[in-house]
Specification:
Elements: H1 3-8, H2 17-29, H3 34-41, H4 45-57, E1 61-68, E2 75-80, E3 86-92, E4 96-102, E5 108-115, H5 122-140, E6 147-154, E7 158-159, E8 164-165, H6 179-187, E9 191-195, H7 196-208, E10 215-220, E11 224-230, E12 233-235, H8 266-270, H9 272-281, H10 289-297, H11 301-325, E13 329-333, H12 341-354, H13 357-360, E14 364-367, H14 374-387
Parallel strand pairs: 3-6, 6-9, 10-13, 13-14
Antiparallel strand pairs: 1-2, 3-4, 4-5, 7-8, 10-11, 11-12
Bound molecules: zinc ion (ZN).
Length: 404
């Protein structure tokens, strides 16, 4: 019986459904005590002990070294066995693709990077991803059957339900391509795909801000994107286009033309490509967000002035987001965030100026902490949430939610 059989079988053949529900509670809540599990599941001690026995037998859970002071006999906290199965995480970028195998923490166990040209056919890139996975598995000494799902981080709008690229994007040849079917035909494995900004937001939340479950993430790069975490989950909206702030119009006297064909979009004013355009007009060579940051770091006054103005553009849009959604935290990531206070000052200024005190009095606006592995870690977290934690099924505080 493989790890994938146990995890993905919902019929109860390998593991009774009631034990699976208890497992989801442990996966979702981290280290928990037996008495906490009784409370969360609404089940009796005898029932919890019996179902836990099945999870121990299947090697799905383990006792941690942490002990809950109970006053009586010390009780070790329980957590899932992070080594039980693997996750395949893939971050497809505009110039390179990163493929990794992680445990359930998720910790990266092995990874490989290859150069990507998004003009290539999707089957060509997917073949390379599959070849990477088949090279990585022997490195960690595990079979493909131990991989419980593939998470794909893609630089495009995604129809999340169907795991397909949709709308105008840099992934021209991928529009409506059946990614899930492609993997199913080869490995009979479940695939989850999401937009890169949503997954960067998820990684940042899970890794650094697990207690701030309502936050807004901005990717300030050559292009601009947003991701919103609500009640601890990515909020995608009706078709997966939620928080796509790059093409919100600013109130500008001479609105610049955007890549989308509209006038005055945030991206046409504050995006890395727009700042590079303005630098070139001043005779300073720059093509993208990385070039802009390199010029800012040389303390070139024109570049600093442009990035400070860009910060106010971000601030104008962020103020509207804060007024509508009332996040506790705004996290700014992407290459332009490396400009630090030159960028952040304008965001803070506009948000504080335009929002009501109730929305701003406990609001933090900070730089992202995740590095260049945010996309791949977000993809691994996504598979974990979908396959193990039972998103939307078992939450802390929902007592008596499961069958007794
Ligand atoms: Zn636009």
């Amino acid at each position: 019986m493989s790890a994938r059989d146990v995890i993905t079988d919902t019929s109860g053949t390998h593991l009774p459904v009631e034990s699976r529900d208890l497992f989801s509670l442990i996966a979702r809540n981290g280290a928990v005590s037996r008495s906490e599990l009784e409370r969360l599941s609404g089940s009796s001690r005898t029932t919890v002990v019996q179902r836990l026995g099945m999870l121990f037998n299947a090697n799905l859970v383990r006792e941690t070294e942490k002990v809950l002071p109970t006053g009586g006999r010390p009780s070790k906290l329980l957590s899932l066995n992070e080594e039980f199965a693997l996750i395949a995480a893939v971050d497809v970028g505009e110039s390179q693709t990163r493929v990794a195998l992680t445990d359930l923490t998720p910790k990266i166990l092995a990874e490989e990077v290859f150069a990507t040209d998004l003009d290539d056919a999707p089957t060509s890139i997917l073949e390379q991803i599959a070849a990477c996975l088949e090279r990585l598995l022997p490195q960690v000494g595990r079979p493909m059957d131990d991989v419980i799902g593939v998470g794909l981080c893609l630089p495009s709008r995604i129809d999340y339900k169907n795991a397909r690229v949709f709308g105008p994007s840099v992934m021209h040849g991928w529009y409506d391509f059946d990614i899930r079917g492609w993997f199913r035909d080869r490995y009979d494995i479940q695939v989850f795909a999401d937009n890169d900004v949503n997954l960067m937001a998820l990684a940042e939340y899970k890794t650094y801000w697990p207690d701030e479950d309502c936050f807004f993430f901005i990717k300030a790069g050559t292009g601009i994107g947003g991701g919103f975490i609500s009640c601890g989950e990515v909020y995608r909206g009706g078709r997966g286009a939620a928080a796509d702030i790059g093409h919100i119009q600013l109130d500008l006297p001479n609105p610049p033309l955007c890549r989308c064909g509209k006038l005055g979009c945030l991206e046409a004013y504050s995006g890395g490509w727009a700042i590079a355009r303005d630098l070139r007009a001043m005779g300073i060579e720059a093509r993208n967000a990385r070039d802009v940051i390199n010029v800012v770091k040389r303390n070139v006054p024109e570049a600093i002035q442009l990035i400070r103005a860009a910060g106010k553009g971000f601030g104008e849009v962020t103020a509207n987001v804060v007024s509508v959604l009332n996040p506790n935290l705004v996290v700014v990531g992407g290459t332009l965030a490396e400009a630090g206070e030159h960028l952040m000052a304008g965001i803070r200024e506009l948000v504080n100026q335009r929002c009501l005190p109730l929305a701003t009095q406990s609001l933090q606006i900070v730089k992202a902490k995740s590095g260049d592995r945010a996309g791949i870690l977000g993809a691994a977290h996504l598979v974990f949430e979908e396959q193990l934690a039972g998103v939307g099924r078992c939450r802390v505080g929902e007592r008596g939610h499961m069958a007794r």
